[in-house]
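Reply to thread "Modeling small-molecule complexes from scratch"

Following up on the discussion above, here's a worked example others can learn from. I took a protein sequence and the SMILES for 2-oxoglutaric acid and predicted the complex. Inputs first:
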Amino acid sequence: MPASISQEMPICHSTFQELYDKLVQLFHTNEGRKDLEYCGVSIYSLFESTLKATLVCQGDSEIDLTELLSKAKALTDYCDEAILLYHFKEVPDHWRRMLMDSGLLNVMIQLKGLISIRTASEAPTDFEKLEPKVQSMMSELDICLVVSGAPGPDRRSTALLVLDELQAWLTAGRRRVKERQEAPSAKRLKVDVGERQKTEKEEGAAGRLKYPIERLTEAPSFEWFLAHCNQEIPTPFILPKGCGIIDEWPAFKHHPWKSTEYLLSVAADRVVPVEIGSQYTDADWSQKMMRFSDFVQEHIVKQEKDGPPAYLAQHDVFYQIPRLERDIIIPDYCYIEAELNDSYVQRTPQQEVLKNAWFGPKGTVSPLHQDPYHNLLCQVVGSKYLKLISHQQTPLVYPREGLMTNTSQIDVEHPDVEKFPAYKEVHYLECILQEGEVLYIPPKWWHFVKSLETSFSVSLWF
Ligand SMILES: O=C(O)CCC(=O)C(=O)O
């Protein structure tokens, strides 16, 4: 992670200049972009000539900048089209590289435009004028980052630095505007994501569970955990709050994920993939890229009752927003290197721990499915109900055919036992995973998950 230019210092107009200089440095020679020639001579020359013209352009001519911007935009649009022609695993590197570089060039031109608006950004009106420009610049770059995967030397670190600094600039600007608008006594209380629904929480429900998953009283030793995972059929268990596994995560302390104010200060203007619909097995389910602040305002703070639920699900938000990665600490258990067997047939790519965020309002559902890895599901905010079924009983849960064989046909909340009679015989385990707890889910165990209130969890697959 590159060092932050601004750290906690007041953010001013010089942020734009520093980021622009960083991009000039990145594109300083064409060493790192020889392979862009594979995109064809016309695209490659359009990129190189636009870059050259950007570097020499004085920035005070709006016409020049508008023309340059439309060329950079044409390049990103062209790359998007080219990428769509391939299956996502087969997109040639040069198209992903060109998309990332054109996205960065696009930012460079817009930064030049911002630098030339010689306003004192301390004034709220100036900030309000620049805010939408910075927001749209960030959205465009974020989409290039997510779609391209940011290949190429220093591209990812540079794009993340730009996004992080612009986010800090916006957050600081908004704080200043708010401070000016509100007398200290009139300051609104911040809305904590988990707080509002506490009364609705299914108090005591844990006691009513029929087949509860075992809750350990303390963290087991590393050796015990390894031996447990190496069993032919390891069983799930819960590591309690306070046992020291995740209690020290900054996400519970000085960077509280419970606080929408904190989350927005880190990621308000980032664009993230959000699932829309009751569950991914439904016909009307879809995914869309959404500004994080819109997702939080519409689906977490307001908890829109009308319309389909939205879920930021199974997304490696930590790769996209490394500042959030600093809020978690991967437990040592994830590095045990358990033995492969019939249910654990493959390790994660490069044996890395696969981290995913699951953030959504009350009522999000992950339908009954199985995953190939050991999993520590860490509950950071709110609580979730989970039903687990061992893979030995796979025939009783009627896996789907085709591309979704890891997903059951059973609607756990309303099982159709006429159509799926064997499901009546299934033995299951269940739990309400509370804030601060960690659930171990063994490989291939079927699991159904429903949030009981606003919830933010992190799954760690290993
Ligand atoms: O929390 C959820 O909604 C699903 C979690 C999950 O499926 C997993 O961790 O593998």
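What I'd highlight from this example: Residues 369 and 407 are 4 Å apart (CA to CA). Residues 155-181 form the longest helix (27 residues). Questions welcome below.
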